[in-house]
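User: Structure tokens for this complex, please. No commentary.
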Amino acid sequence: MPCINSNGELSANGRRILAALALPATVEQIRDQTELPLYLIRSGIREMVGAGLVAADRGTFQVTESGQALLARQS
Amino acid sequence: METVTPTGFPRLGQPAPAFEADTTHGTLRLEDFKGSWLVLFSHPADFTPVCTTEFVAFAELAPEFKKRNVELLGLSIDSTFSHIAWMRNIEQNFGVKVPFPVIADLDKTVATLYGMIMPGESKTETSRCVFIIDPNAILRAMIYYPLTTGRNVAEILRVIDALQTTDKHGVATPANWKPGEKVIVPPPRTTEDAEARMKAGLETKDWYFSKKAL
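Assistant:
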């Protein structure tokens, strides 16, 4: 499912993925934490990297300040 | 005389054609499924009876696919809105929630890449095609059914079991094999191995035909 809805808010999956990215993590580590399927994690991360909510670095991902702020607003 | 435009077909043992597509779970790429097995299957159209029975059958067996690290991905030449409405209709009428994504292939990009359109049957609908893709994105099995014949989803699961058994144990599986039954030991490639095979303690009918339990 998309991680960001048409109102710019995080979906439930988006919140789960972002919450798992407080520390840098690979998609496999995110899967272990969230129990979401790999395809949803990869597509969700792609979407959130594009939106500036997640930063990518050599196969690991971490929530950005913007991502943290959006997550905090919706928690 | 009618002109037939040849369409490419994917080949077993080769990388599955890459794609990016709109689905009921957002935009997905083939590469998103890396690390999982994938059953990519097409149906002719939403809100049609045979396809509805198939989706109910796939949804009911989805937990069994999940146990085997298999993701399901449907496809038809319909819009995302049509797919969403149909999924909701299936849940209302049959009490089954469809847990997997469905590609909205309105421009036929994925259908064409995978040779899912059989012009002899329909130029505007995909036939009932099944592509089994392994965790390294290699195409491992293809099954084609005509528009009028609903698929046997248990058979697709059986093929997955056979492929995973082959990968794990380096064996083949005989006709009508089911998990738990004896498997085929690959035939010997040399005369020396053929002689040794007869004394190997396997269930051997002849030098080329041996079975064993796993």
